[in-house]
Specification:
The protein is α+β, with helices and mostly antiparallel strands. The protein has two domains: 166 residues, Penicillin-binding protein 2a (Domain 2); 341 residues, Beta-lactamase, CATH 3.40.710. It has 20 helices and 21 strands. Strands 2, 3, 4, 5 and 10 form a five-stranded mixed beta sheet that branches. A five-stranded antiparallel beta sheet has the order 12-11-21-20-19, with helices on both faces.
Length: 596
């Protein structure tokens, strides 16, 4: 007899099987969900905790002088950081005093910084630490911190080239000078990489490189660090000696147009943040304008010679030492009497220059000045360069016409004046200045005939000899030529009595010119103010030392050698036995003072 199935038991089996199947299906679905959907989110959370993108800082390019000597370098520095949550742990508090000592902080300062960021997981403890300092940290302290490598700018020449080179800020971005103007080329581009970090944010493994680091380009300037130092030291001593407000020196290579030195006062040390005062940042050699005074007379004389209005031997009456034009009076320092055109330069006669200028239209003089670059930037590659001021009037008043002949009524920069004198020294071919080293001669502009430039050079050499206004500009071993200038300061539209610019512009050696040097000292207050007294000695020192550093052969015959060895052309002049310098005045008003 067959047994009948129990429907209740069978139902139980079905129910249990269904429940088990449902559980297994739920577990499988849950596993699939965690594996396929939630896993990605968990992975992202894990990566967020352990993966970090770290910046790979680009090394800023070097700024070098023409010989490869560094003017600005980037030294590796470290930024020390930490996790405040870790430092606040009880077992780590005992290390705060030792950590503060190694960081150069007080314990109170360290504690204040940690507590300020206690709700964060990152705090900067110290910037600009040298790698050698980190080596002094005990292992226990090293476990509490993380270190990031950065670079800090250092300037080996300090104040000597500060306004030209400039400096960077705490984030290594250029702020002034070459550093700012060429920041993009120097800065490069930071790279980045992904790393695995531990609980204290220390990188334990590199995962991948996200962007390659591109280090900055090096820039090689035309400056010669040796000549730059010479110019700076000479200028600084003079500004201090005469208590001047400011000063500039420019040294230019006649053939290549390269700027070998460009010094300015007041100065500052870019390595010392406390000395970075904005009023000292200006590169006065290219930004500050001044009236050139008598230093422009060589160009005036050349213009008259080229127009055949005068010859070097043409005689000009300057007696009685004054000349009235309208309501204004032009003065010489004394009654020079009858002078040749050459002697007008040697004696720096304003009356003689005015009479030469009045022989030609004012516009002809202006065209000559314009052709010589006055009123035009030099395109030297330096930031902040001023154009200068050269008025272009439809009608020139007689006093404006006359004063333009001896350097009033228009303005230029020291670099523009150096460019002009480079044109005279380079046989009439005016080079284009540059702050970068050139591999070939500079582009030039012909501003006068070669024969005229050579004749002018020989006349200007007499200025530095007995009877001229700049005996202090002479050098022991080299023949030099140049011109003094002493101009009354124009401040807020009016000339100030007793305040002057002292100027000297010249070149050497005369036999084969190599360098031009321009010196401008503004507002000397003690010990004199004439260009021949204040600026000429700076020229002598800088020119003599610069030519020696460049191994230029001397061309000056010393007194001990026989006179038969002297190979020099004679200039038809009749120099006076006593040289006196001219005193500048406001050329637009009647004044008992003398003018230069």
């Amino acid at each position: 007899m067959r047994r009948r199935k129990n429907p209740v038991a069978f139902g139980r089996y079905i129910l249990m099987g269904g429940l088990l199947g449902a559980v297994m299906l739920g577990l499988s679905g849950r596993a699939a969900y965690l594996q396929l959907w939630v896993d990605q989110d968990l992975q992202q959370k894990g990566n967020a905790y352990h993966l970090r993108d770290r910046v790979m800082p680009a090394r800023r390019g070097l700024i070098l002088d023409r010989n490869g000597e560094p003017l600005a370098v980037s030294t590796p520095m470290l930024t020390v950081t930490a996790d405040p949550q870790v430092l606040l742990q009880k077992e780590n508090r005992r290390n705060w005093r030792a950590l503060a000592r190694q960081l150069g902080l007080s314990r109170a300062d360290l504690q204040k910084r940690i507590l300020h960021f206690k709700n964060k997981n990152f705090v900067v403890l110290k910037r600009g630490m040298r790698p050698a300092q980190l080596e002094k940290f005990a292992p226990a302290l090293r476990q509490l911190i993380t270190v990031q490598k950065q670079y800090r700018r250092y300037y080996p020449t300090a104040a000597a080239a500060a306004q030209v080179v400039g400096f960077t800020d705490i984030r290594d971005r250029g702020q002034v000078g070459i550093e700012a103007y060429y920041n993009r080329q120097l800065a490069g581009q930071d790279g980045s990489k992904r790393v695995i970090v531990d609980t204290q944010r220390r990188a334990v493994e590199d995962v991948e490189q996200l962007a390659a680091v591109q280090h900055g380009q090096n820039l090689k300037l035309s400056l010669d660090a040796r000549i730059q130092s010479t110019a700076y030291q000479a200028l600084r001593a003079t500004v201090i000696k005469f208590q001047a407000a400011s000063g500039s020196v420019v040294v230019l290579d006649v053939r290549t147009g390269e700027i070998l030195a460009m010094a300015n006062m007041p100065d500052f040390n870019p390595n010392v943040i406390a000395q970075r005062r904005s009023e000292r940042f200006r590169n006065r050699s290219v930004t500050d304008l001044f009236e050139p005074g008598s230093t422009i007379k060589p160009l005036l004389v050349e213009t008259a010679l080229e127009a055949r209005l005068v010859t070097p031997d043409t005689r000009i009456e300057t007696s009685p030492g004054t000349m009235r034009i309208g309501n204004s009076t032009i003065h010489d320092v004394s009654d020079h009497g009858l002078l040749t055109v050459a002697q007008v330069l040697i004696k720096s006669s304003n009356i003689g220059a005015a009479k030469i200028g009045l022989k030609m239209p004012a516009k002809q003089i202006r065209r000559a000045y314009d052709r010589a670059g006055i009123g035009h930037q030099t395109n030297s590659g330096l930031p902040g360069e001023a154009r200068g001021i050269l008025p272009n009037r439809k009608r020139w008043k007689p006093i404006e016409h006359a004063s333009m002949a001896f350097g009033y009524g228009f303005m230029l920069t020291p670099l523009q004046l150096a460019r002009l004198y480079a044109g005279i020294a380079n046989a009439g071919s005016m080079p284009t200045p540059t702050i970068f080293k050139r591999s070939q001669d500079a582009p030039v502009k012909q501003i006068m005939l070669p024969a005229m430039a050579r004749r002018l050079a020989l006349i200007l050499e007499k200025v530095t000899e007995p009877g001229g206004t700049a005996l202090a500009a002479a050098t022991p071993l080299y023949r030099v030529a140049g011109k003094t200038g002493t101009t009354q300061l124009l401040i807020n539209g009016s000339y100030r009595s007793g305040r002057y610019d002292s100027i000297f512009a010249g070149f050497g050696p005369v036999s084969q010119p190599r360098l031009v040097t321009v010196v401008v000292v503004r507002d000397p207050r003690r010990g004199g103010y004439y260009g021949g007294t204040v600026a000429a000695p700076v020229f002598s020192q800088v020119m003599s030392e610069s030519l020696r550093l460049l191994n230029v052969a001397p061309d000056k015959v010393v007194a001990s050698k026989p006179a038969s060895l002297v190979q020099r052309q004679a200039v038809p002049v009749n120099p006076y036995s006593v040289a006196r310098q001219a005193v500048p005045v406001n050329p637009y008003t009647v004044s008992p003072r003398k003018a230069s």
